[in-house]
Design brief:
The complex is a heterodimer of chains A (246) and B (378). In chain A, a hairpin with a 2-residue loop joins strand 1 (16-29) and strand 2. Chain A has helices spanning 3-15, 60-67, 90-100, 116-120, 122-126, 131-144, 160-172, 190-203; strands spanning 16-29, 32-45, 49-54, 75-80, 83-84, 101-104, 178-182, 210-215, 226-231, 234-239. Chain A is globular and about 55 Å long. Chain A has a single domain, classed as P-loop containing nucleotide triphosphate hydrolases (Rossmann fold), CATH 3.40.50.300. Chain A has eight helices and ten strands. With 246 residues, chain A is an alpha/beta fold. Chain A has a six-stranded mixed beta sheet. Chain A has a four-stranded antiparallel beta sheet with strand order 2-1-4-5. Chain B has 378 residues and is α+β, with helices and mostly antiparallel strands. Chain B has two domains: 2-43 and 252-377, no CATH class; 73-230, no CATH class. Chain B has helices at residues 2-11, 13-42, 46-49, 75-81, 144-150, 191-197, 218-229, 236-250, 253-282, 284-293, 297-329, 344-370, and strands at 56-59, 86-100, 106-114, 125-128, 139-143, 161-164, 167-176, 185-190, 207-212, 232-235. Chain B has a six-stranded mixed barrel with strand order 2-3-8-5-7-6. In chain B, helix 1 packs across helix 11 (297-329), helix 2 packs antiparallel against helix 9 (253-282) and helix 9 packs parallel to helix 12. Classes of the chains: A alpha/beta (246), B alpha+beta (378). At the A-B interface, helix 2, helix 3 and helix 5 of A face helix 1 and helix 10 of B.
Chain lengths: 246, 378
């Protein structure tokens, strides 16, 4: 890389929410080592709704896991808002995640035994906030998501859509700077899926926050600010729209 | 996070109660069996405990316990009385005899002959009547186990006649005594009368009970008696210990109870381990999500420890309460008379429960800690 290109890359990294350089990841199965990511260089800007798209086995789950700090890369560097996260100690990385990353899982992974408000308040409680204060903050967010009246209900008393809103509230309650969202519309019909995406854009996206969505739901591709296509561990497309051959 | 952990635990009622049952059952088994064991082997010393006034027991050198003894010649009493530091010394006879009941059944009994003059050798308390009833003709005092064994519950046996070794004996009182190891019926009578009730060989004197003179230590006195008379002399505590040791050394009781206690531990580990691992397996996604969100391993450890601690505390409490209930429930039965829970027993079961939870909790925790946060995306 030339010094001018290097300077440009550093300048981009300085403003990028996420910056990966040469990220590779190997998995070992028996005596065989398989490389699932091949030197990913990527900059994700704040204020963008970014889709990570790819077939099963393309490496998108691995890449998203590395980008949000829950899976160590075999090679390369990952910076989240300027912090080289894999140079942090284990405990600092966990703490960094707790303060800077919000997760929306495909199966929501809500705790069945606690009510919606307490579920949404989990990141604040984990940060050490008083439980009732955290609950109050979570209820405010549930109100913004129009399910404040469901705050006292257990997850199994909520519909799938309501559970997803609780999961969204949990991802946002501690005001993280990165939201990672795994297949949010996979189990929804087209209309519900678009509504969830509108909701995410409305409540999650901000100038100082980045939202990355892993999906292969082509019904919502038009709602993205940026689409990254991953094939066999390499980014093969980076643009506002999906390539025509997909 | 501890609150969340507790809610996770109690939220799954089936597993929560399963865990409680496992710990409570294990605690009950360990505590109850140890309690019975301790009380049972202490019965080996009941013959000594029933005569609290004797500081020293003197016997033939080959005698081992109140029930395993070789009679001495009556001259032994005078030899003991001549030892310096002996305040008083009285004869004491213990022998086996047969009683024919009203129904015609034959029952084995222990006959204890107490000193004619002082009645030393009788239990301290009488449940019915007074000690001096033994001065009446053919009088015997029966222990409270005997009243239940020979007569209907609640029946007052005073005045009842017995056929004791083909001789007439009349029950004139009931002694409040600690039952013997075998819970055999005991009849107390005066020494001179006991000699008539129990046919025997030339030597009849089972023990000489000794009171130490003021300022004389029982241990020193026992040593002096042995030195001066050649007889075996044991202090009250030593002789009580001899009785307990005899049972431990000569019966399979410690092994059998030990096996049951071990079984309680193994059952506890099995039930709690299985239920705990099922609980963790069912919640592994939630734990994975918590780890991804940023709950560190130290907090996860505290969560699992809180879950184990809560189950342990409640389960242990229920188990000990169950044992107390058992002891209380059987307290009216003379066989269980005087049973108590030594403070060491709940402590031992607490250690066992802690070990069970530490072991099963560690196995469960290992699985949680090994779970990669990235697994939640798979």
């Amino acid at each position: 890389m030339s010094s001018a290109a290097e300077a440009e890359a550093k300048a981009v990294a300085a403003v990028a929410a996420i910056s990966t350089r040469g990220v590779a990841r190997d998995f070992t199965a028996g005596q065989q080592t398989i490389r699932v990511l091949h030197g990913i260089d990527l900059d994700v800007r704040a204020g963008e709704l970014t889709y990570l798209v790819g077939e099963s086995g393309s490496g998108k789950t691995t890449l998203i896991s590395i980008m949000c700090g829950i899976l160590w890369p075999t090679e390369g560097e990952v910076r989240l808002f300027g912090t080289d996260i894999y140079h942090l100690s284990d405990s600092d990385l966990v703490d960094f995640r707790l303060r800077n990353v919000g997760f929306i899982f495909q199966q929501y992974n809500l705790i069945p035994a606690i009510d919606a408000a307490s579920n949404a308040a989990v990141p604040l409680i984990a940060q050490g906030m008083d439980r009732m204060e955290a609950r109050d903050r979570a209820i405010e967010l549930l109100a913004a998501l129009n399910i404040a009246d469901q705050a006292d209900k257990l997850p199994n008393q909520l519909s799938g859509g309501q559970q997803q809103r609780v999961a969204i509230a949990r991802a946002l309650v501690h005001q993280p700077r990165l939201i990672v969202c795994d297949e949010p519309t996979a189990a929804l019909d087209a209309r519900s899926g678009r509504r969830v995406m509108d909701l995410l854009r409305e409540v999650a996206l901000a100038d100082d926050r980045s939202v990355i969505i892993v999906t292969h739901d082509n019904r919502i591709f038009d709602l993205a600010d940026r689409i990254l296509v991953l094939e066999d561990g390499r980014i093969t497309h980076d643009g506002r729209d999906m390539p025509k051959d997909h | 996070m501890v609150w969340i952990a507790i809610r996770m635990l109690t939220g799954d009622a089936t597993k929560f109660y399963g865990l409680l049952f496992g710990i409570a059952f294990s605690t009950l088994l360990i505590t109850q069996q140890l309690t019975i064991f301790v009380n049972l082997i202490e019965r080996g010393a009941s013959g000594v405990y029933n005569v609290p006034s004797a500081d020293v027991w003197v016997m033939d050198p080959v005698s081992r316990t109140t029930d395993v003894h070789l009679p001495m010649p009556s001259t032994a009493l005078d030899r003991v009385r001549s030892v310096a530091g002996v305040e008083w010394a009285v004869p004491h006879l213990r022998a086996a005899a047969s009683v024919r009941t009203k129904e015609g059944d034959l029952e084995g009994v222990s006959v204890i002959g107490v000193d004619d003059a002082t009645l030393i050798g009788l239990p301290r308390r009488m449940a019915l009547g007074a000690a001096d009833v033994l001065e009446r003709p053919d009088a015997v005092v029966i222990d409270d186990v005997g009243t239940v064994r020979f007569f209907p519950v609640g029946y007052n046996p005073v005045g009842e006649r017995l056929e004791l070794n083909d001789q007439r004996a009349v029950i004139m009182g009931v002694a409040d005594a600690i039952p013997s190891f075998t819970s055999q019926v005991t009849l107390y009578t005066r020494y001179s009368r006991a000699l008539n009730f129990v046919p025997g060989t030339r030597n009849r004197l089972s023990f000489v009970l000794v009171g130490a003179a003021p300022g004389v230590e029982a241990k020193a006195l026992a040593t002096r008696i042995t030195k001066d008379t050649g007889l075996r002399a044991r202090t009250r505590d030593e002789f009580a210990r001899d009785g307990v040791d005899f049972i431990i050394e000569n019966t399979g009781i410690p092994l059998n109870f030990g096996i049951t206690v071990l079984l309680g531990f193994v059952v506890g580990v099995a039930i709690v381990g299985l239920t705990f691992s099922l609980f963790i397996r069912d919640n592994i996604k939630q734990f994975g999500a918590l780890k991804a969100i940023g709950v560190n391993n130290a907090k996860i450890r505290r969560m699992v420890a809180a879950q184990a601690g809560m189950v342990g505390l409640i389960g242990y409490g229920l188990g000990v309460l169950g044992t107390v209930g058992f002891i209380w429930g059987f307290s009216g039965n003379p066989t269980f008379k005087g049973f108590y829970i030594p403070w060491q027993v709940p402590l031992i079961s607490l250690v066992a429960v802690t070990l069970i939870l530490a072991l099963t909790g560690w196995i469960a925790l290992r699985r949680v800690l090994k779970t990669e946060p990235a697994a939640v995306f798979r």
